[in-house]
Design brief:
about 425 residues; alpha+beta; Yope Regulator, Chain: A; 3 domains; 7-stranded antiparallel beta sheet; two-stranded antiparallel ribbon; 16 helices
Length: about 425
């Protein structure tokens, strides 16, 4: 007690600065939101350079260092990061122009150009272009129509489409070569080994456990196991490029609207997972890297969508909890929260609470990754109650200025077992007020 009051104990070890999950731009402070309003007001006053400066300041995430702007009077240059791509642009008193380099095409390729022509029809603000041997995407606008809304959605389309397409095009067409990705930060091989080991471990364990269950009677539980696994891999392992696309295809197997029964969908997902873990490290490692982002690839949702997802999972969990299937029960609870993390651009307090949830439920992975913070010991079923409460209170305190009614009642948490903890933790998440 005295150690805690007077800081006599050892200094708390810091966790490594490893990001998890997809980037969410639903994390703006009050000051950043004010900059958007300022950009809009300046645009209406026809003070275009000043409006652009405020707009790019709104986009800038200081933690990511994702946006750079150089302005000289009515002219300026900017660049922003989105995964493996950089959007570069400039503006003057007449136009705003932005461009992304996708790949190098050494020789003209009819199949490539045909593919891009087809994809052009799905673009609203940008277009594909060929500049000498550079395959590009471009966006431009007259300065008088470049209001903050148009700029935001135009640059977002440009950045997200380019980030997703570059790797896929290079892998599909041999005539294309990767280019302009030197800014991507490599992950140490030791960390890649851990990510790869847990990727294959989680998949194999889930497939094996699903095989031990009756495929018909437990079809719903097996679906939860397989889908939660995909969301966990997306968040914890952080695949990019081809591996990310293939993981998304596994999820699409279940949610695709067709006549297939649940058991058929489950079997198709299992077969897809089996193919994924047959890939050698040499194919998986290039899909593991760290990058900066400016835009979220998913949209924000009202907190009611989060509440509905978590409550639906909680209701479906009860039978498994009461009939002594704690692993399935915990997985279903994880599904409700992880579905939201995967599908929506969540406010930062929610993403921080989700990370704490995952650190408690998958403590071995975080320990392997070098995290000193320990919140739960599975072997002894012991929770670090003070550490959990302190972390929750810190998260709430940081965002209280923006979400003035934000309150998490830590006194409602139960620590007798993991199922009850997860149930009470996610129940408190649904009770949060983000007004």
């Amino acid at each position: 007690m005295f150690d805690k009051l007077f800081s006599w104990g050892k200094k708390k070890a810091e966790d490594p600065a490893i990001p998890f999950g997809r980037y969410s731009d639903n994390n703006k402070t009050v000051a950043k939101v004010d900059r958007w309003t300022e950009a809009d007001n300046l645009f209406k006053k026809q003070q275009y350079p000043e409006s652009l400066e405020a707009f790019f300041d709104y986009l800038r995430d200081e933690a990511e260092q994702n946006v750079m702007l150089e302005r000289n009077g009515t002219e300026g240059r900017f660049h922003l990061y989105q995964g493996s791509k950089i959007v570069r642009g400039e503006f003057n008193n007449e136009r705003v122009v932005a461009e992304v380099t996708l790949a190098r095409m050494g020789q003209p390729s009819v199949p490539v150009m045909r593919r891009l022509l087809e994809m052009n029809f799905n673009l609203y603000y940008s277009r594909y272009a060929l500049d000498s041997d550079r395959l590009c995407m471009r966006f431009d606008s007259n300065i008088k129509s470049a209001n903050p809304n148009k700029l935001y959605y135009g640059l977002k389309e440009l950045a997200i489409k380019a980030d997703k397409l570059d790797d896929l095009l290079v892998q599909e067409f041999t005539s294309l070569q990767s280019i302009d990705s030197d800014h991507v930060a490599e992950i140490p091989d030791s960390e890649k080994e851990i990510r790869y080991d847990y990727f294959t471990k989680w998949v194999q364990e889930t497939i094996d456990y699903a095989a031990s269950l009756d495929a018909d009677k437990f079809s719903g539980a097996i679906s939860y196991l397989l889908l939660t696994l995909a969301f966990r891999i997306d968040y914890m392992i952080g695949p990019e490029g081809k591996l990310q696309l293939d993981l998304e295809k596994v999820i699409d197997i279940y949610f695709k609207k067709d006549e297939k029964q649940t058991t058929e969908r489950n079997q198709a997902m299992i077969e897809a997972y089996r193919k994924l873990i047959t890939r050698p490290k040499e194919e998986v490692f290039p899909c593991l890297f760290r990058s900066k982002h400016t835009f979220s690839i998913v949209a924000p949702q009202n907190h009611k969508a989060v509440i509905d997802a978590i409550n639906a999972a909680a209701g479906n969990m009860i039978w498994y909890r009461d009939n002594q299937y704690p692993m399935i029960a915990n997985t279903i609870i994880e599904y409700g929260f992880s579905f939201c993390q995967y599908s929506y651009s969540l406010p930062k307090p929610l993403t921080d609470l989700f990370r704490l949830f995952m650190q408690i439920n998958h403590a071995d992975y975080f320990a392997a990754m070098g995290f000193a913070s320990q919140y739960y010991d599975k072997a002894s079923n012991e929770f670090e109650v003070d550490a959990i409460r302190e972390r929750i209170e810190d998260i709430v305190a940081v965002w209280k200025n923006k979400f003035t009614k934000l309150e998490f009642k830590v006194s409602n948490l139960r620590y007798d077992n993991l199922v009850n903890f997860n149930t009470t933790f996610t129940a408190e998440v649904t009770a949060l007020n983000f007004d």
